[in-house]
């Protein structure tokens, strides 16, 4: 009887129900199916304990918590599918970010008749590029251990990459091999197509971000105001009033999924551990004002270090097109890359300092910008190929297109910064109006601060590609301080 029950439960297990789809995702980015399922079975126990705890709390303390059983149960059941799907989407974004650099090196190597497999093998040793190492592993495994021919292995990967920018490289490379035409000429057209598609991905994100901004506006401003009205009328608790904040993690997940490949390489040093103070500060029995000062001080401290790295990354990216053109000119005069870089002076002391560090240790390039890291590494590879001037022009043009697309994206999303100011002001006005009609003991500044922080996190992620954007948080702190000292308007 027990065995029959276990067999039935095994049949409805998500690893069996979504078996085909999970394996399809894994085949694209590379993973171990058995490890994912065994990890899921371990996590399932945690999910069950969480559901039991929430149900008990809902029955005896907070009734609305029972409604959380449905979304948590849904997450628990679909976890293997959602996990592998998100890994696939993450891999796809990395593919699209690295595709221009891979295409340039494939183009250079095609001049001296080096194959695509050889290029992937060569680039697999480059730490800054992740995709060539994975693709070479797949291709080599299919050829060496699964009996695929070179062409069949390429066709298999081309089919899996249908819909991303590396798929264009595979398709055109195969077309050149099958038709017997010059691969070099075909790949130059591929590079143009890759850059066009990359720019289009930024434009598509701008359109989608407008729709997400409307959802965020409704969830973190309109819905709280409606709930506030119910709270004053029916004397509901503060916990029920903060219910919309539960939508923040799913929204962050959605934004992360649809965003183009983010190229910030933020190093989270020891200062990140100071965030542990926040949950402690929430529950310590002190005055609200003092509690908020502790929380925002920690957030500002952490976000400041992150912001410094983002600023350096942006400076490095802006300097890249000019830097590459200057190096190309020196290479035409017979200089090497190592000799050319010290002669170039960029109008930024930070960038010049980074360039000096690169000269000292060119084997490992580590800056907050993945785009800069990949560009410099590819630059050193190009300099060894003997076709420096032509390839550098292609690289400089590609980088210029990427930098322009990113700057255009940030400019168009800058309007969302107004939501950072709008959220606390609108909630403060709503509290003031309702307090005039019906007196309440609800902690207004706590609720306003919670929704304002949620708004900052979401809009920073949407428009600045980071959860903690220092200027946005600093602006919020200033607005909240002003509101805390102002008397009720009504």
TrEMBL record:
Sequence intervals crossing the membrane? 42-60, 66-83, 95-112, 215-234, 241-259, 271-302, 413-431, 437-459, 466-486
Keyword Transmembrane helix found: yes
> What keywords would UniProt list here?
Membrane, Transmembrane, Transmembrane helix
| PANTHER family noted in UniProt | INTEGRAL MEMBRANE PROTEIN-RELATED, TYPE II SECRETION SYSTEM PROTEIN GSPF DOMAIN-CONTAINING PROTEIN
Question: What protein name applies here?
Answer: Type II secretion system protein GspF domain-containing protein
Q: Which organism is it from?
A: Sulfurisphaera tokodaii
């Amino acid at each position: 009887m027990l065995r029959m029950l276990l067999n039935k439960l095994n049949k409805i297990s998500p690893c069996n129900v979504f078996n085909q789809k999970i394996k399809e995702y894994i085949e694209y980015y590379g993973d171990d199916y058995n490890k994912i399922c065994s990890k899921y079975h371990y996590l399932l126990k945690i999910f069950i304990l969480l559901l039991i705890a929430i149900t008990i709390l809902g029955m005896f303390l907070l009734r609305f918590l029972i409604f959380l059983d449905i979304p948590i149960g849904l997450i628990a059941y679909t976890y293997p599918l959602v996990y592998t799907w998100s890994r696939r989407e993450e891999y796809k974004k990395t593919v699209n970010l690295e595709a221009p650099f891979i295409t340039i090196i494939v183009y250079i190597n095609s001049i001296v008749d080096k194959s695509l497999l050889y290029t992937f093998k060569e680039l697999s040793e480059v730490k800054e590029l992740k995709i060539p190492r994975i693709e070479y592993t797949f291709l080599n495994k299919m050829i060496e251990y699964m009996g695929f021919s070179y062409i069949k292995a390429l066709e298999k990967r081309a089919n899996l990459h249908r819909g991303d920018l590396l798929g264009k490289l595979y398709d055109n490379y195969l077309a050149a091999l099958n038709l017997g035409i010059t691969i070099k000429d075909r790949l130059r057209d591929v590079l143009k197509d890759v850059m066009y598609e990359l720019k289009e991905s930024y434009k598509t994100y701008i359109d989608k971000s407008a729709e997400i901004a409307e959802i965020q506006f409704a969830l973190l401003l309109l819905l709280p105001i409606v709930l506030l009205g119910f709270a004053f009328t029916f004397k509901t608790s503060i916990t029920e009033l903060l219910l919309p904040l539960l939508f923040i993690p799913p929204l962050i997940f959605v934004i992360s999924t649809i965003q183009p490949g983010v190229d910030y390489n933020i190093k989270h040093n020891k200062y990140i551990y100071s965030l542990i103070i926040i949950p402690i500060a929430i529950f310590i029995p002190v005055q609200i004002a003092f509690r908020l000062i502790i929380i925002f001080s920690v957030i500002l401290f952490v976000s400041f270090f992150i912001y410094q790295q983002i600023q350096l990354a942006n400076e490095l990216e802006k300097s890249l097109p000019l830097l590459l053109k200057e190096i190309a000119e020196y290479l035409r005069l017979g200089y090497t890359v190592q000799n050319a870089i010290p002669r170039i002076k960029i109008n930024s002391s930070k960038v010049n300092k980074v360039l000096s560090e690169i000269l000292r240790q060119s084997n490992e390039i580590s800056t907050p910008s993945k785009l800069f890291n990949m560009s410099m590494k590819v630059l050193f590879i190009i300099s060894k190929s003997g076709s420096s001037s032509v390839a550098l022009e292609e690289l400089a043009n590609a980088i210029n297109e990427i930098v322009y697309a990113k700057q255009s994206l940030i400019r168009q999303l800058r309007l969302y910064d107004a939501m950072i100011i709008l959220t606390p002001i609108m909630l403060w006005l709503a509290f003031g109006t309702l307090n005039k009609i019906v007196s309440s003991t609800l902690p207004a500044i706590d609720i306003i601060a919670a929704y304002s922080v949620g708004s900052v996190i979401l809009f920073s992620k949407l428009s600045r590609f980071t959860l903690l954007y220092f200027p946005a948080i600093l602006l919020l702190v200033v607005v909240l301080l002003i509101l805390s000292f102002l008397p009720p308007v009504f």
